[in-house]
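Usage

Read records sequentially. Each one opens with the input sequence:
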Amino acid sequence: MLSLMNYLHELLLRFKKNKGLWFTTITTLAVFGIVIAMYIIMTMTSNVSEKVYQSMAKDYRIKVTTLFDSKELEFKKMISVIEENKPLLAQIEQNQEQEILVSQKAINDSFGKKGINNYKVSFYSVANNKEIFRSSIISVIKSKNTIYGLEVMSDGVFNTYLQPLIKDGNVYGVIEVKESIHNYRKIFESLNDEYVFLLDKKMLSLISIDAKNGRYRDMINDYTVEQTFYDTKFTAMIKDIEKDEFKQMIHENYVISGIYYRTYKMITDINGATIGMVMLGEIIDKEDGFVNLADNMTKTVTTVALGLVISIMLFMF
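and closes with the structure output:
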C-alpha cells in the first residue's frame, strides 16, 4: 500500500513538472466532467418531461372516466324524478301508445325549455308487440337490472341509461335516458382542452344509411369521425399524424405531433366491445398548459447548464 502511494505521488510530481502534459490532462478531465454533467442534466430534464407527459395522459383519462361516472348519476336522478309520475307509469304498464308518445314529447320539450337539449328520454312498454326491442332493452327486461354505458345505435353513438320498471316482480316497461357522445366536446372545450370521438369503422354497419350518409369522414388507420360535430383544427390534423407517431401514441400513451400534444382513451360499449377511441389533448404552446411549462423548464435548465459550462471554460483559460 505504501509503495503504491509513493508511486502515485511520484507520478503526480512528474505531471506537475511537465506543464504541458499537466495542463492537457487537467483540461481533458475537466471537459470530460463537464460533458458527463451536461449529459446527466439533459437526461434528468428529459425524464422529467416524460413523466409530465405521462401524467397528463393519465389526467385526461381520469377526466373522461369522471365525466362518464357523473353522467350516470345525472341520468339516475332524472329517472328517479320520472318514476314519480304515476299516470305515466300507468300508461307504460297498459301500453297506451299514443299517450306514451305525448308524455315522452312533453318531457323532452320541458327539458328543452330549461336549456337541457342534450338529453333524450324514451319509454318502452313490454306489452308493445309491434316494436322490436334492441338487445340492450331485452337484456334489461330479462335481467331486471339497470344498464349504463355507450351504445352504437342506428342514429349514432349514445351514452345510455336503461331502467326497468318492475311491478309484482315482473318488468312491465323500460325508461331510457340517452345523450350523444359528441356532446362531451363542449365540456372539454370549457376547460380549454381538445376532444374528438373516433369511431371504429367496423361499427358503421350498425348505423343507418340516412344517419351516416355523407356525415362520416375517414381519419387515421381504421377510424372515422362524424364530421358534423367536429370542425376543429385538432380534428382536421388527425389525418396528418404519421403512422409511426400514431403507434407511438398507442404504445406510450401520448405523442407530440405538429402543434398538438395528443393522448387517447379506448372506448367500449355496454357489452365490453371496443367501439372507438376518444382523442384528447392541447396545443403545445398553450400558455398555462403543462406541455408549455415542461418545455420552458427544459429550456431554462439547459440554458443555465450551458451558461455554467461556458463560465467554467472561460475561468480555466
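Summary fields computed downstream for this record:
- The longest helix spans residues 19-82.
- The first strand starts at residue 119 and ends at 125.
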